[in-house]
Amino acid sequence: MPSEFDIIADLFAPLATSKAAMGLKDDVAILGEIVLTTDTIIAGVDFFPNDPPDTIAKKALRVNLSDLAAKGARPFGYLLTLTLPRNTSESWLGRFAKGLRADQKTFGLTLLGGDISSTPGPLGITVAMFGRAPRGKAILRNRARVGDLVFVSGTLGDSGAGLAALKARKKQPKLIARYRVPEPRVALGQKLRGVASAALDVSDGLVADLGHIADTSGVHIVLDARALPLSKAYRAFIGNDPVRAATSGDDYEIAFTAPRSRRAKVLAAAKAARVPVTEIGWVMKGRGVALLDASGRPIALKKKGWQHF
Amino acid sequence: MPSEFDIIADLFAPLATSKAAMGLKDDVAILGEIVLTTDTIIAGVDFFPNDPPDTIAKKALRVNLSDLAAKGARPFGYLLTLTLPRNTSESWLGRFAKGLRADQKTFGLTLLGGDISSTPGPLGITVAMFGRAPRGKAILRNRARVGDLVFVSGTLGDSGAGLAALKARKKQPKLIARYRVPEPRVALGQKLRGVASAALDVSDGLVADLGHIADTSGVHIVLDARALPLSKAYRAFIGNDPVRAATSGDDYEIAFTAPRSRRAKVLAAAKAARVPVTEIGWVMKGRGVALLDASGRPIALKKKGWQHF
After folding, report:
1. Touching check for A119 and chain B: CB below 8 Å?
2. What string of DSSP letters covers A203-252?
3. Which of B209, B191, B187 lies closest to B200 in space, CA to CA?
4. Residue B119 and residue A45: Cβ atoms within 8 Å?
5. From CA A4, how far away is CA B118, in angstroms rounded?
6. How far is A155 from chain B (nearest CA, A)?
7. Helices within A71-157 (DSSP H only)
8. Mutation site, B15, B89, B95, interface A, largest A CB count within 10 A
9. Which residues fall within 8 angstroms of residue A96, CB to CB, at 6 or more apart?
10. Which of B4, B84, B101 sits opposite A116 (nearest CB)?
11. Taking CB atoms and an 8 Å cutoff, what residues of chain A touch B309?
């Protein structure tokens, strides 16, 4: 089976005939001032069937909020599609709805509609999320320029480490919380409008995702492995392993580029949004993404990030 | 497990805090002139895993187009979420995309974005469909008035009969085609703006769906079983059984009410859209839906339509 990226490029991009879809090369579509995105999470793939239902609800919303955040959009509403195994209990649904309610409050959202269907398979949740950004001001993927700096919010690898902890039945509450309930950088994203040249959210892994900025912008991105931000919890559980952090999924941080001249504005945006932002690399002529070791040599990567197929 | 309608009313309607969602009592949300809806179809529930992939693609689009059609909206684009079993072949995907392409042409659509995920379960397709209707002109469910007449487009029960034929391995190509590829009444819906007082698409079964108009409008709907439009193919395969036709799902016709004074306008709209429309009942004081037999007595119904749970 071809990769999801090949499927999208070969079969579906030709169907995206409107400028609004940007050739499916971004995570969102833009209709005037409305920015929209959709993402699915599935039990056994994106979360554990026995995860607390409120955290599943939050994850379903937040993976979408993260897409909008990286575009600098302010989210306002969502469509919710549930495919439920027939034995789903009323109590489970009640706790799931409670998670939605909490995040609606946190992020200023409203439910716009949806669909509920039964399935013989695992629980699946599809959210289509709607936000607004002033016309022409959403931050795209394809505007990174040679000479730009590369930044990332928060820390990397925590969610992947949380997943590893869950699989190994280790107690790592901080890391597990990051896996179950990502922290979309909604405030930061809006502050980065007019500051970042290109941005996306890190969902498949930093190197894989920055590859999309490199591809669509026609540039080469160089990352300094020593600069990658790792949390104390990550270092304690996994060790000082920036390569793993740069290639594991589900971070939901914003990775972005900005002209060198705007470095101070980037730091001001980070301060205003109360989110740490780290300078991790720079943009050069060429293509693809290189992760450099302490001696400045590219590290050979076995995989760049999560792929479904 | 509670019914999907109870789940929506009890758990999710309180989350739909925006007027745009109309308390989740309609099939769509309305954001200014944009009308949006979402529907999922799942292998083994809404179609057969071995159905031709192009018909599955068309069904996924058309069940959504039907929702917009009933609101009088002109569709323009969609988000597509695929949850694919890992063994999905490239050839299957190619034929699926061909079905999308064909219907994009038929209905003037463009793909706006989407998501592809792997699943250990059955193939699932979620579409969020976007259309436009002039502000305030979309046809809602809650405006049926006492004295209105009730109409339905096309014929009823064909799709349910097609499903029965597939299950029984009978050759009924016309009925099976109606099950696999519904005919959303997009042109008719737009002609009904300003003519119909309330409308919805018949997806769960005529009686069940008109129940939503009765509930939200606060009226009683009376249907004349003898008046229900049945196709030749239906009569030949199932017999003269209007009750079954009124309670089987997947028709994707438009059921609507209109003031008596607009009967001529209804017929003109039908003619302009080249879709047969049949007068099947009337609106009274009270609640619920009654299906009357030849002697004017309500027929006791074992079930009113399809329910997921």
Report:
1. yes
2. SS-HHHHHHHHHHHHT-EEEEEGGGS---HHHHHHT-S-HHHHHH-S---
3. B209
4. yes
5. 9
6. 25
7. 90-107
8. B15
9. A53, A54, A56, A57, B11
10. B4
11. 84, 86, 118
- Establish if A16 touches chain B: CB-CB under 8 angstroms: yes
Any chain B CB within 8 A of the CB of A278? no
- Indicate the burial class of A267 (C-beta count within 10 angstroms; 0-12, 13-18, 19 or more): middle
What ranges in chain B are assigned the alpha helix state H? Answer: 4-7, 53-70, 90-107, 158-167, 173-180, 186-191, 206-217, 232-237, 242-247, 263-273
Half-sphere exposure of A225 (CA within 13 A, CB side): 20
ipTM of this predicted complex? 0.85
Query: Which B positions 187-216 lie with beta carbon below 8 A of chain A?
Result: none
Average pLDDT over residues A217-225: 97
Alpha helices for chain A (secondary structure H): 4-7, 53-70, 90-107, 158-167, 173-180, 186-191, 206-217, 232-237, 242-247, 263-273
CA gap A26, A12 in Å, rounded: 13
Torsion of CA A227, A166, A170, A307, to 10 degrees: -40
Cβ pair B15:A121 closer than 8 A = no
The CA-to-CA distance between both ends of chain A, in Å, stands at 7
CA distance B204 to chain A (A): 12
A154: tokens are 């928060």
**Nearest chain A residue to B64, by CA:** A115
The residue in chain B having the minimum alpha-carbon distance to the alpha carbon of residue A43 is B119
Is A80 at the interface with chain B, CB within 8 A? yes
Q: What is the pLDDT along chain B (309 residues), one digit of tens a residue?
A: 677 778 888 888 889 988 888 878 888 999 989 999 999 999 999 999 999 999 999 999 999 999 999 999 999 999 999 999 999 999 999 999 999 999 999 999 999 999 999 999 999 999 999 999 999 999 999 999 999 999 999 999 999 999 999 999 999 999 999 999 999 999 999 999 999 999 999 999 999 999 999 999 999 999 999 999 999 999 999 999 999 999 998 999 999 999 999 999 999 999 999 999 999 999 999 999 999 999 999 999 877 666 656
Q: How far is CA B286 from CA A280, A301, B23, B259, in A?
A: 68, 70, 22, 17
- For residue A39, CA distances in Å to A126, A152, A206, B117, B150 come to 6, 22, 18, 9, 39
Residue A137, CA distances (Å) to A26, A29, A194, B181 in order: 14, 13, 7, 40
Q: Which residues contact B267 (CB under 8 A, 6 or more apart)?
A: B277
Whether residues A45 and B15 touch (CB distance < 8 A) is answered with no
C-alpha of A51 from chain center: 20
Chain A positions in Cβ-Cβ contact with residue B116 (cut-off 8 Å): 4, 7-8, 308
Which residue among A15, A40, A89 sits closest to B83, beta carbon to beta carbon? Answer: A40
User: Is there a contact between B121 and A117 if contact means CB atoms under 8 Å apart?
Assistant: no
Within an 8 Å CB–CB cutoff, is residue B98 touching chain A?
Answer: no
In chain A, which among 122-151 make CB contacts under 8 A with chain B?
A: 122, 124, 126, 128, 130
- Grouping H, G, I as helix, E, B as strand and the rest as coil, residue A44 is coil
Closest by CA to A102, choosing from A53, A163, A69, A172, is: A53
